[in-house]
Design goal:
single chain, mainly alpha, 4 helices, 0% strand
Length: 114
């Protein structure tokens, strides 16, 4: 069970890197877009996060449900924004910044909230 959680955590971190990397690669672009890395990263982040929480619920240690709820809300907002704007050739710079900021906020909640 421990190895499965570690593999899922690795996939979760790779998904985060894909999402943030997909956004950061467009830092100098005049017309940012939602690329495949952001789309795949966001969906993988959501799925692996849900599976990790499920495995933690089964385990003996208590789970911080408030932290998980905040993480879930932020991640769902990211997935909706990315999926809804995938069809456009470019997105406004503010929306691009919001997706990046929410991604960093999700990571900050996960790491800093003990």
């Amino acid at each position: 069970m421990q190895i499965a959680q570690q593999i899922l955590l690795l996939l979760h971190l790779i998904a985060f890197a894909a999402l943030l990397g997909g956004a950061l690669v467009q830092l100098r672009s005049k017309e940012p877009e939602v690329n495949a890395s952001m789309l795949n990263g966001s969906f993988t982040l959501l799925i692996t996060g849900l599976v990790l929480v499920t495995l933690n619920e089964i385990g003996p240690e208590p789970v911080n449900h408030i932290k998980i709820a905040i993480e879930l809300v932020i991640t769902v907002v990211i997935v909706v924004l990315v999926a809804k704007n995938r069809k456009f050739a470019s997105i406004p710079r503010g929306l691009w910044g919001l997706i990046g900021a929410l991604t960093v906020a999700a990571a900050a909640v996960a790491v800093l909230w003990q």
